Design the sequence.
């Protein structure tokens, strides 16, 4: 059955995913078995008891108590069993172990932010140690989102004004894709967070310094990655097309009119302020909807954005 499971389901990256798949495939198997049994018997009886002549006999069967008890009680026992099996799996997925690493997750249009116990914050990307339980405590700043990790077989709505939870324990180092499964708005499908499952040593290093790319890549590339991965590109194009926010193309050095009627020149300080305090100066003709990125970007990432915008002439 393994080939069938691999064909039907995503890769398994936790013990829970294996339990879940085993149950799922068992239910598929059980359903297939009863389908074949019942459909097969129907076909067999249709042929066997076909009335072969116009004056052939007509059976007068009203009921058969033993048979009816058998086909009621056996399925009843099976479904009660399935209930407890499923309930056990549900509790497993719901109640996180006490020693789990707790990460706060916030969904907002159109990105995920994460906050570690030590206060470090990241956007659309977390690193977690392998074989350690990770407990996500989630809420939303705007609409309902849904935090979905197919490789772990967990999915949970993220609701404004309320906390929901889910947890996982990744049992191999690597990478997990997160989706937002709430398709009732324009860009939920682009809320693609990444979970990097690291060896304990690599994880400790990441906690300290940020990833290698952020530390060593040329600033312009760091900025481009911020634009791609931190939600900027949902609102800011780089080709001059106006979106929910102004395009970044050719704005460096320009004088721009604000909604208070005063013009400002776009320089490094202005860009920095736009990210940290987006409502301080609102560009004329736009709504003040940009979220703040204060505490969310490392210093090198802020410099990177400035260099990136500079390069888009
Ligand atoms: Cu969403």
Sequence:
């Amino acid at each position: 059955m393994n080939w069938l499971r691999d064909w039907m389901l995503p890769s398994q990256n936790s013990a829970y995913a294996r339990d879940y798949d085993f149950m799922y495939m068992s239910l598929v198997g059980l359903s297939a078995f009863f389908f074949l049994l019942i459909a097969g018997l129907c076909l067999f009886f249709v042929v066997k008891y076909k009335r072969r002549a116009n004056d052939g006999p007509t059976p007068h069967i009203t009921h058969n108590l033993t048979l009816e008890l058998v086909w009621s009680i056996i399925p009843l026992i099976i479904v009660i069993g399935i209930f407890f099996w499923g309930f056990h799996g549900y509790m497993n997925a719901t109640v996180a172990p006490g020693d789990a690493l707790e990460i706060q997750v916030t969904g907002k249009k159109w990105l995920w932010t994460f906050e570690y116990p030590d206060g470090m914050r990241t956007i659309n990307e977390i690193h977690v140690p392998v074989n350690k339980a990770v407990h996500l405590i989630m809420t939303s700043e705007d609409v309902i989102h849904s935090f979905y990790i197919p490789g772990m077989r967990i999915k949970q709505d993220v609701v404004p004004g309320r906390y929901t939870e889910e947890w996982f324990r990744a049992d191999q180092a690597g990478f997990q894709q997160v989706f937002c499964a709430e398709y009732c708005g324009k860009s939920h499908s682009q809320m693609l967070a990444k979970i990097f499952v690291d060896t304990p040593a690599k994880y400790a290093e990441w906690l300290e310094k940020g990833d290698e790319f952020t530390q060593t890549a040329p600033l312009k590339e760091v900025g481009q990655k911020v634009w791609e991965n931190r939600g900027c590109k949902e609102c800011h194009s780089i080709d001059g097309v106006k979106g929910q926010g102004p395009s970044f193309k050719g704005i460096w050095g320009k004088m721009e009119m604000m909604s208070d009627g005063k013009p400002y020149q776009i320089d490094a300080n202005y860009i920095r302020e736009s990210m940290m305090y987006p409502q301080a100066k609102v560009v004329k003709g736009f709504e003040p909807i940009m979220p703040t990125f204060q505490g969310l970007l490392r210093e090198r990432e802020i410099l990177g954005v400035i260099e990136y915008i500079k390069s888009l002439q």
Notes: The pocket of copper (II) ion is lined by residues 107, 145, 180, 182, 188, 191 (CB under 6 Å). Residues 38 and 44 are 10 Å apart (CA to CA).
